[in-house]
């Protein structure tokens, strides 16, 4: 994929720098050679190998494009502006986030030494809630929410949800383990679950709690929400466990207990989470 540096997509978007790569393909920074005086001057371009016709990979890719286009237009969702195709590749023209991902912010010590760190946590998390609520209102359920799939603004106070590769618009699913294990809710991660279906909406709500722990404590609460995981098992037996072992305030700990509700039908909804987050003054236990 590095050989694409200098390549011009649709004779307009010149690939100038590789931002990331994986089994899916690669993401490049691109310059708009025909941008107006007010820009935007740069985009991200996701380059994928074209899947075989009528294959499951083609079906999944077309689903990703369709759902991403549906939610484009909200300030807290990465916009998909165009799709280009040649004989062997597909190019997705996306918003560019110069500040990187939420994971990059979490790894930056400056975020945690700032005097306004509580305000920043609240602003960041509320923007994630706003983006996800927009998606849910359009019946798009992400199923892979995590810091790596959330892009941040340059001031570190706002976010945009990215990567809809595992998203679905089905209210019920018979797929278990869809997403990244540490962020998947117990009813969706473990096939031993007696319920034959999962609820993608509720899976996203659970992931919000894991992300909040990440933002404050810079770690996951457990490796997986299964009875085989010692950390999760202790939490089920002692709900105050997270407050004791993490640098989270009592208000945050109480919120997490209601987000990490094993029964998906009793889990807090986005509007309820937002109301409680707005009322929190301190997110950290330590001063």
Give a description of the structure:
- The structure is a single chain.
- The protein folds into two domains: 2-94, Phosphorylase Kinase, domain 1; 102-279, Transferase(Phosphotransferase), domain 1.
- 36% of the residues lie in helices and 16% in strands.
- It contains ten helices and eight strands.
- The chain has helices spanning 56-71, 102-106, 109-113, 117-137, 186-189, 200-217, 230-237, 241-245, 250-259, 270-279, and strands spanning 8-9, 13-22, 25-32, 42-49, 80-85, 89-94, 150-152, 159-161.
- The strands form two sheets. A six-stranded antiparallel β-sheet has the order 1-2-3-4-6-5, covered by helices on one side.
- Helix 4 runs antiparallel to helix 6 and helix 4 (117-137) runs antiparallel to helix 10.
- The longest helix has 21 residues, at 117-137.
- The chain is globular and about 60 Å long.
- The chain starts with 7 loop residues before the first strand and ends in an 8-residue tail after the last helix.
Summarize the structure in short.
Residues 13-284 form the Protein kinase domain. Its EC number is 2.7.11.1. The protein is of the alpha+beta class and 287 residues long.
């Amino acid at each position: 994929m590095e050989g694409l540096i200098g390549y011009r997509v649709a004779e307009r978007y010149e690939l100038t720098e590789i931002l990331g790569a994986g089994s899916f393909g690669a993401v490049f920074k691109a310059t708009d050679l025909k941008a107006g005086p007010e820009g935007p001057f740069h985009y991200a371009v996701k380059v994928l190998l074209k899947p075989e016709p009528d294959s499951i990979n083609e079906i999944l890719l077309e689903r990703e494009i369709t759902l991403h286009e549906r939610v484009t237009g909200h300030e807290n969702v990465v916009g998909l502006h165009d799709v280009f195709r040649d004989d062997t590749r597909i190019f997705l023209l996306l918003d560019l986030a110069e500040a990187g991902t939420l994971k990059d912010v979490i790894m930056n010590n400056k975020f945690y030494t700032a005097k306004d760190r509580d305000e920043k946590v609240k602003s960041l998390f509320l923007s994630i809630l706003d983006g996800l609520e927009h998606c849910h209102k359009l019946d798009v359920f992400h199923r892979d929410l995590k810091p790596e799939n959330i892009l941040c603004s340059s001031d570190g106070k706002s976010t945009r949800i990215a990567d809809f590769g595992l998203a679905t618009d089905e209210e019920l699913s018979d797929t278990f383990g869809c997403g990244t294990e540490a962020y998947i809710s117990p009813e969706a991660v473990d096939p031993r679950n007696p319920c034959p279906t999962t609820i993608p909406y509720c899976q996203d709500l659970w992931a919000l709690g894991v992300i909040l722990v990440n933002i404050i404590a810079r770690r996951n609460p457990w490796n997986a929400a299964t009875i085989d995981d010692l950390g999760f098992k202790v939490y089920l037996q002692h709900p105050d466990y997270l407050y004791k072992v993490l640098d989270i305030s009592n208000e945050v700990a109480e919120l997490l207990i209601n987000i990490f509700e094993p029964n998906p039908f009793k889990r807090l909804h986005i509007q309820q989470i937002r109301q409680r987050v707005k009322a929190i003054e301190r997110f950290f236990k330590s001063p």
